[in-house]
Amino acid sequence: MKRAVRALTAHRPRALSSLLVALGLAAGGFAAWAGQDWYAAAHDGTAAYAEQRDRALAAGEQAVLNLNTLDHRDVDQGLDLWESSTTGELHEQLSTGRDEFAEQVREAKTVTTARVLSGAVTELDDRAGRARVLVALRVTVRASDGARTDKDSRMLGELTRTGGRWKLSALGQAPVGGAPTG
Amino acid sequence: MAGVSAGDPAGTEPPGDGRPGGKRPAGRARRVVLGGLAALLVLGGCGFLHGAHRLESAESARNRALTDAAATDRVAGEVGNALARVFSYTPDGTAAAERSARDVLGGRAARQYQDLFAQVRGDLAEQRVTLSTRAVRTGVIELDGDRARLLVFLDQTSHRGDGEATTAAAQLTVTARLEDDRWRIVHLEAR
Q: Which residue of A121, A125, A127, A139 is the best one to mutate when testing the B interface, meaning the one whose CB has the most B CBs within 10 A?
């Protein structure tokens, strides 16, 4: 009796079930395809490289800005920032000459601020963690008598990635009238 | 003892046994689970697609500066050369610079340049000014298809008559557009 009832009523549900199974399979297929698409995008080497480029530029501009900012009333904090923005040889140079330099700034009573006008990455070796940047900068120095001088400078910076962070390892003015490179 | 209730066939029977749709609750549950699962999969798939789209259209990924090395070198080279040609002239040869300008400058940059030259053309000939411009460093800030922004460091050496040459530094941000397979400078801004 029960069997007969089931045979009679099972016809529609079975069709519905198989439809649902097909739908489920289609949904699974879609999800798998989308997931793979996402995986490819997430593991795209170009995207990772582009991200490092942008990080290097942001860090480079900030570090160049930091190294052109110093207030005689707060020399220690300023120089701490200089040291935390740099690594390698540049870092050593800064920390070696720190005391002498701090004394000079305190005596001169100058306040130096800067503004980044533009910046670009010219080289990036993602694997080695090295990059080069160009930064156009306007530096403003206020002397103790309130006199203000603006100076535009163009800087070449070399960055090195340490512990996942980009830091300046070399910084200099782009020479005027020198040999052409890059 | 333990088997008493478990072995009781009545215990396994659904409460609604006897009605024609006695097997329905189990079947319905299975269908609900299946439907739910399918909906979840579709939702998850949409999530993945959305994530992939966000990754691909992220600002950093759209900017091809350096990630497309050949295109980056090309735009940097063409823009550097263009600036050198347009801002280099001899007292009697400003026509060549102006001709280059018509080739490589477009939009606002072309108008800026014409205005500038209209002002100084007479003085250049009179004071025998020679200017030579060189792009010493070129960095591509942004490169997106047919549009690029660059930072260029220039050295400009000028003589007046037989006077001594002086070299000055100039920094420009340049906007360039790829037209007819050539990069044209459409905007110049001194930095």
A: A121
